[in-house]
């Protein structure tokens, strides 16, 4: 237990160093600082990967509450690194990993549970795939929200004609909107698949009453608001600031759905 917490503290420290160097580069462009920020971020990714490999040898295919938040952070970093590898968006990398660091910091307050976190019926590959798909969807929604926030910042600076360093470092509004849309387009089908798998399992193990579970209702609400986003983007004529604000406000349903899982109101307490 002590070694595990020590290792996790080490991850938090190098994550913080990555953010500090990234922030320094954003305030005053500095190529060495930018490289160090990326190097430390890769070190965080490698450390988290090693942690998951070690945990998998002991608990696979279980994701406890402690593991699930780290998995969220790991997936967020992975997607961020892939996007940055091809598109070089320094401001996006900083904003996305500020969110990832916050999630990792929250994880410090969760005590790992090695044997009592899950009941026996939940230890199945079907549920594991369901959880992984749901978390992937939430990661895509999170990064979509980051792009939406950056769009709103860029749009506001353009309207005020503030041609400062922040505006020059931001991607174009068109690119920000496109990435926000594409990430939502990935998240919605993943969430649909996760819900289908969850319904199949719940029908077999819990019974028909699961439809009234707050977590199920919350997940359907998340699916509904992001489906509205996709519909309005494709057929409803929404564009620009309206879509960005809808994406930002929709993310509160994701946060609310996670809080439901940890408030003792659902059989999904283990997520």
Automatic annotation (TrEMBL):
The keyword Transmembrane helix applies. It is found in: Membrane. It is a multi-pass membrane protein. Its main location: membrane. Keywords: Membrane, Transmembrane, Transmembrane helix. The chain crosses the membrane at residues 6-24, 36-54, 60-84, 91-111, 131-158, 179-202, 214-231, 243-261. Residues 66-263 form the Cytochrome c assembly protein domain. PANTHER family: HEME EXPORTER PROTEIN C, PROTEIN HEMX. This is Inner membrane protein YpjD.
